[in-house]
Amino acid sequence: MERDTKGERKTLPHGLSLQDRQKLAISGVNDVVNFDENQVIVATGLGTLTIRGDGLHVDQLNLESGDLRVTGTIDLLEYDDSGAMRGGFFRRLFQ
Questions:
Q1: At the top level of CATH, which class does the domain 15-83 belong to?
Q2: Burial call 9-44: b when 16+ CB within 10 Å, e when fewer
Q3: 57 CB contacts (<8 Å, ≥6 apart)?
Q4: Which residues are bridge partners to 57 per DSSP?
Q5: Residues pairing with 22 in the sheet
Q6: How far is CA 83 from CA 12, 48, 62, in A?
Q7: pLDDT tens, 24-73?
Q8: pLDDT bucket at 9, cuts 50 / 70 / 90
């Protein structure tokens, strides 16, 4: 994890790249909270990302650069930003 001159964590740029619902590359990862073959939970600077599917496997994890690669059949990518930002566009729209 990169740190600024005061020793505090820097927010890494966050991005997702999904290929054929089989290969997922994520940047801006702070930590992997939990994982098994059906679910991977990842902490990012923009909220907690939950990845659900079948036969999921963490192929590569580098917390220094914030990069993660997951393979398997990916069915769902879902953010929980309750810790980062309050509500999203659709949440405010349907209140």
A1: mainly beta
A2: eeebebeeeeeeeeebebbbbbeeeebeeeebbbeb
A3: 37, 70, 71, 72
A4: 71
A5: none
A6: 17, 8, 23
A7: 999 999 999 999 999 999 999 899 999 999 999 999 999 999 999 999 99
A8: low
How far is it, in rounded angstroms, from Cα 30 to Cα 42? Answer: 8
Torsions phi, psi for 10 (to 5 deg)? -90, 145
In three-state secondary structure terms, 92 is helix
Predicted confidence band of residue 85 (pLDDT cuts 50, 70, 90): very low
Report the SS3 class of residue 93.
Answer: helix
As beta bridge partners, residue 7 has none
pLDDT on residue 84? 47
Q: Where are the domains of the chain?
A: 15-83
Amino acid 72 reads G
Report whether pLDDT(4) > 70: no
Tokens standing for residue 89: 């566009």
